[in-house]
From TrEMBL:
Keyword terms, alphabetized: Endonuclease, Hydrolase, Nuclease
Pfam families on file: Uma2 (PF05685)
CDD domains, alphabetized: DUF820-like
Entries under InterPro entries matching the protein: Nuclease_put_TT1808 (IPR012296), Restrct_endonuc-II-like (IPR011335), Uma2 (IPR008538)
Transmembrane segments: none
Protein name: Uma2 family endonuclease
Entry's Gene Ontology molecular function annotations: endonuclease activity
Length: 202
């Protein structure tokens, strides 16, 4: 017996943007589909906020803008609209033509990993991000242990991955003049046992 499955409803980008402006929740737009972005754990939010603060202080009075969580990004090559956890944009700010609320030219993007999103963040999402000409640096932050994956663009088709582990470790960013100490990034984070964190969905 074959079980019939209904196709998800599809929308134009214009329909998505009209709905998103009125929505209290954030959604991604992926090739016609609107996907709700679930809320994160306190650790997820604290880590994203900590990185945002470290970048903001490090780049204060410099020609960069730092965004956290609620800033929409458009990736024209794949017509994807999404909300990275943290973005850095070099001034002047680039906006999608005809929009005042959607940026297009990040140089650095960071995502705090969760059980439900880590494969997407490491996989298809990173592939999509790499189609952005201005994009140079990608940071993936593990919320379950002090561990950071740092990707730096070397050439058009080459990226270098360096891993940093432990709160006694620090690393320097390449696209902006900031050094990140994992002790500062993970300050105040209480790590959950693995079996408890499996129920997290954000």
């Amino acid at each position: 017996m074959t079980i019939a499955t209904s196709k998800p409803q599809t929308y134009t980008a214009e329909e998505y943007l009209a709905l998103e402006v009125e929505s209290e929740l954030r959604h991604e737009y992926r090739t016609g589909e609107i996907v709700e972005m679930t809320g994160g754990t306190p650790a997820h939010n604290k880590l994203s906020s900590a990185l945002n603060a470290l970048l903001w202080f490090g780049l204060r009075k410099k020609p960069y803008t730092v965004f956290v969580t609620d800033q929409r990004l458009w990736i024209p090559a794949v017509d994807l609209y999404t909300y990275p956890d943290v973005m850095v944009v070099a001034d002047p700010l680039g906006l999608k033509p005809g929009r005042k609320d959607t940026v297009i030219n990040p140089i650095l993007i960071a995502e705090t990993l969760s059980r439900s999103t880590q494969n997407y963040d490491r996989g298809d999402k990173f592939v999509h991000y790499r189609t952005i000409d201005s994009f140079q640096e990608y940071i993936l932050i593990d919320q379950y242990r002090p561990f950071v994956e740092h990707h730096v663009k070397q050439s058009e088709h080459q990226w270098l991955l360096t891993e940093y582990q432990g709160v006694d470790t620090s690393f320097s960013l390449v696209s902006v003049p900031v050094e990140i100490a994992l002790a500062d990034l993970y300050e105040g984070i209480e790590f959950e046992p693995a079996e408890e964190s499996n129920s997290e969905v954000g």
